[in-house]
Amino acid sequence: MGTQPGQGALSAVSARPAAPREPDWPTRVYRFADKTLMIVELEIWKLRRDPTELVTRAIQPMLWLLLFGEVFSHIRAIPTGNLPYLDFMAPGILAQSVLFVAIFYGISAIWERDLGVIHKLLVTPTPRPALILGKALSAGVRGLSQAVIIYVLALVLGVRINWSPLAIGGVLVLVLIGAALFSTFSLIIATIVKTRERFMGIGQVLTMPLFFASNAIYPISIMPGWLQAISRVNPLSYEVDGMRALMLSGGTSAFGLSIDFAVLIVITGVLVALAGRLYPHLVT
Q1: 231-261: b or e for each residue (b if 16 or more CB lie within 10 Å)?
Q2: Closest C-alpha to 96, from 236, 256, 241
Q3: 126 located within any domain
Q4: CA 116: distance to chain centroid?
């Protein structure tokens, strides 16, 4: 029997393997989360091998609470409403400690580039945002250790802490988000300056203005107008505000907890997306 015209071509087309189907969005989300958690696990493994950083980072917030906090509690120079100054200050020092851990996180990326680690990561199928988010969340794990230290020290100093599990959970979430935000910001700086010397200089310049231009150790209401405007666009102010409302017994939020969380989450999302695009530039 003769072959009909075009029948052979049709058979050849039908014999070709079907193009792979695009995974549905739940599968893509699962894969993204899996890759992100793999990066977190890798970073935690490195931290377990050398935990000295956590100990050294704990010294500075302890000094702030023990020296600065105790002195200003006695002289009562800063109006804090119904809160004792040490209570007012404790959430701010927790946020400061998270900031100091996260803001220098970018230097580890420069070390990894020099060791060839980033080159290996970039050739894997792991999405760039998953790489960034994984590193950001691992910075949050470092921040959680600071939270434990501050809570213990605050308890010893008589700070009236809200021990509600929901409130403590909210503080820990803020620690994770705050560390993720500032560590991602740090990675963006690292992709731009690309050297350890430049990065350390810029990190030192940024840390103190971020801290002092926030509500960490004094209320926004006593600042001059220009500093109030800066403080209201400083993400650290929203982290401190949320921590103050959740960490303290009788604490309140000046901006509103929903605003605090929303601002931090949105800024973190934008920074993760931006860092994902800039991350490959670190090796060029």
Answers
A1: beebbbbbbbbbbbbbbbeebebbbebeebb
A2: 236
A3: yes
A4: 25
Length of the chain: 284
Domain of residue 170, residue span: 25-283
Among candidates 122, 282, 259, which has minimal Cα distance to 199?
Answer: 282
Is there a domain that residue 173 lies in?
yes
The CA distance from 278 to 241, in Å, is 31
* pLDDT tens for each residue of the chain, 284 residues long: 455 554 544 444 445 555 456 666 777 777 777 777 777 777 677 667 666 666 677 777 888 888 888 777 777 778 887 888 899 999 999 999 899 888 888 888 888 787 777 777 777 777 778 788 888 888 888 888 889 889 998 999 889 999 999 999 999 999 999 999 999 999 899 888 888 888 888 888 888 899 999 999 999 999 999 999 999 999 999 999 999 999 999 888 999 999 999 999 999 999 988 988 888 877 77
| Residue 17 belongs to some domain of the structure | no
Contact 174, 242 (CB under 8 A): yes
**Among 247, 78, 49, which Cα is nearest to 148's?**
247
Is the residue at 5 inside a domain?
no
* DSSP classification of residue 66: I
State pTM to two decimals. 0.83
Letter for the amino acid at 54? L
Q: Report which of 234, 237, 275 is spatially closest to residue 92, judged by C-alpha positions.
A: 237
Domain count, the chain: 1
